[in-house]
Amino acid sequence: MNEFSFSRFETVSFLDLNPQLLFSERTDTKFLFHYTGLEELLASIGDDYAVMENKGVVLQDYTTHYFDTPDLAFYLSHHNQHGNRKKMRIRNYSDGSSFFEIKEKTNKGITLKQRTLSSVPLVSGLEHQIEVRYQRITFYSKSFNEKLTLDIELSFKKGDLELWCDEFIVAESKRVNGQYSPFLKLMRDKRISKSSFSKYCYGMAILTPGLKMNNFKYMIQKTHKLKNDYAVSTTNW
Fold first, then answer.
1. What's the pLDDT score for residue 232?
2. pTM for the structure as a whole
């Protein structure tokens, strides 16, 4: 992937962020688009967002290990479109820290996240399922009511099977109380529709032979379109 410049952005240090800006209770909206749209996106949001740096570095490496019950209750809950569902994971950050996280989506569309400093799961009866790696660029709106993340260079590993996905970007707006988002307005203006995308479910569906996946076919088809049939236009990156 090409190198992109962040010189147009004001910067905010991770160490200066208040804990509440982790947005543990929020409304999430995701989008998928081809990586060739990243440069235009960065040019479009420079006036409204500051980019986060951690020890002077913008691109942060993430490694996430997802855990589930032996019968894959978390995966199937998402697949079967249950209103209240959970994911449990250990996320390893570039600075060497690790957190055990419980992420819950309520039937009202609110995302709740608990995180504890730990390199092992803190809930019994879980089994490791899949490893997901990517690089993340994090922005904050200048009013600090929105956190915007761009995940690039995704890869998935389950046992001996691996999947690399560097053709598309996962963008996510995380907002408190549904406040105004310049990024969401940009997506509407570009006619890019929001997408339901779970890294855990996407990787599991592709890398687990025989696993129930009918309700995730739309997600897989969309990424295949971005990989194989992408054509530059003025309305769809």
1. 44
2. 0.90
From CA 62, how far away is CA 154, in angstroms rounded? 10
pLDDT in tens, 35-47: 888 999 999 999 9
Residues contacting residue 223 through CB under 8 Å, at least 6 positions apart:
32, 165, 167, 168, 202
Of the pLDDT bands very low, low, confident and very high (cuts 50, 70, 90), residue 235 is: very low
Tens-digit pLDDT profile for residues 71-84: 999 999 999 988 88
Q: What is the CATH number of domain 10-228?
A: 2.40.320.10
Domain ranges of the chain: 10-228
Spatial contact of 223 and 205, defined as CB atoms under 8 Å apart:
no
* Three-class SS state of 202: helix
